[in-house]
Amino acid sequence: MGGLGAAGIALSALPIVEACSPDKKAAVVGGKVRLGLIGPGSRGQLHLANLQQIVNAEVVALCDIYQPNLEKGLEMFPNAKSYTDYRALLEDKDVDGVIIATPLNEHYHMAMDAMSAGKHVLCEKAMAYTMDECLDMYRTAQSCGKVFIIGQQRLFDPKYLKALDSVRKGEYGPVVNVRNYWFRNADWRREVPSPEYERLINWRLYREYSRGLMTELACHQLQNGIFATGELPCKVMGSGNIIYWKDGREVYDNVSVIYTFPSGVNMTFESVISNKHFGMGEQILCKEGTVDLPNGRYFPEVPPKKTAIRQLLGEIEKGVFSNPAFAGTSWAPETAEDTSGISIMPEASGDGSLEMMQAFCDACISGVQPEGVLREAYYGSILSILGDEALLQRKILEFPEKYRVD
Ligand SMILES: NC(=O)c1ccc[n+]([C@@H]2O[C@H](COP(=O)([O-])OP(=O)(O)OC[C@H]3O[C@@H](n4cnc5c(N)ncnc54)[C@H](O)[C@@H]3O)[C@@H](O)[C@H]2O)c1
Prior knowledge:
It is a single chain. By secondary structure, the protein is of the alpha/beta class. The chain has helices spanning about 1-5, 15-20, 40-50, 65-75, 85-90, 105-115, 130-145, 160-170, 200, 215-230, 310-315, 355-365, 375-395, and strands spanning about 35-40, 55-65, 80-85, 95-100, 120-125, 150, 175-185, 235-240, 255-260, 265-270, 280-285, 290, 295-300, 340-345, 395-400. A nine-stranded mixed sheet has the order 14-13-12-11-7-10-9-8-15, with helices on one face. It has a six-stranded parallel sheet with strand order 3-2-1-4-5-6, with helices on both faces. A hairpin with a 2-residue loop joins β11 and β12 (about 290). The longest helix is centred in the last third of the chain and has 21 residues, at about 375-395. Nicotinamide-adenine-dinucleotide (NAD) binds near residues 44 and 216. Nicotinamide-adenine-dinucleotide binds near residues 40, 66, 86 and 125.
């Protein structure tokens, strides 16, 4: 997929580094971006906590239809104006940029309305419920002259970017497989104060609002895969079912999906929410080694030898010398392999969400859209929706050409 290949984000063009040059900061009142946040629920409150640390941002408006969450937001930003209708927030001339942290089915119309109201937008992932909506948002964002970011924080996480940049440069050899999984052991339910709030609070479980594990989790991991390979998959197949949490939910609690790139390389996504043993993994398998993205580590196919002292300490820890053999120990230095991997970016911490919010604020002030991030996020969402369609239709689906963008 040539277009995407050329559009990958080079480290030197990291949005957080490049998007906010001092001479471009004058346009917004007081050198601060004035933000409105729609949906101060779980994710929205995390964004607000990050915004409390960002000096060139001010939260001036909050909107929610659920009063307890609106109040939680106001506790964090007591001077913000409060709204219960997002359209009224969009009419507020004091708002330069909008953060949309509402359920998936709300993203499209809120983001489109925000762009027509002339606001910069950070809209949570997945981008929208349908591929057509994603394409419409993408095209509108390209032409509206405002900043538009989708909440895929891995695109702003320095350790992901560094690792993926090395993969893209071929430093670990060609990519031979992309392996993603996300395992949890919990029902994904939230407590509701009374039954009429069930669908508002547990929106993730119902098809009207959500595509379940594909749009909630897979979109992050699939985005890594296309970033690593610089290609788009040409087909997808899989299987999804409700195997354990048969509690009236409509979205699968168990999915396995395979995406195949034109080269034949496969990218998998597996998720189960009734067993958490293997946790979360995003692994780029290359001919010469494996990149473990969340842990920021690289595992060469031929591991280096352990130094004698490390091997000795390891053996002592394992109790090898607690009962020495009669004729002396059999310990010999430099025989064991060091399989603990190599840290790609030792100083990295966090998951990229703070960096993403900082980049958004900086971009609102400079008016410069961070290069490439919208396209990568768009494809992450498109692939998650296409995967869900393959699961629902129980068919192998080809990537529809009409969703390819420049
Ligand atoms: N990037 C990430 O890592 C990440 C993590 C968690 C959630 N998310 C995304 O963030 C979004 C929100 O998820 P959440 O877990 O915070 O959900 P949530 O239910 O905790 O919060 C959503 C909020 O939106 C409000 N809301 C719903 N409809 C509204 C409307 N019409 N007008 C105004 N407010 C409305 C709800 O009352 C609630 O307060 C989802 O798109 C989700 O996928 C992203």
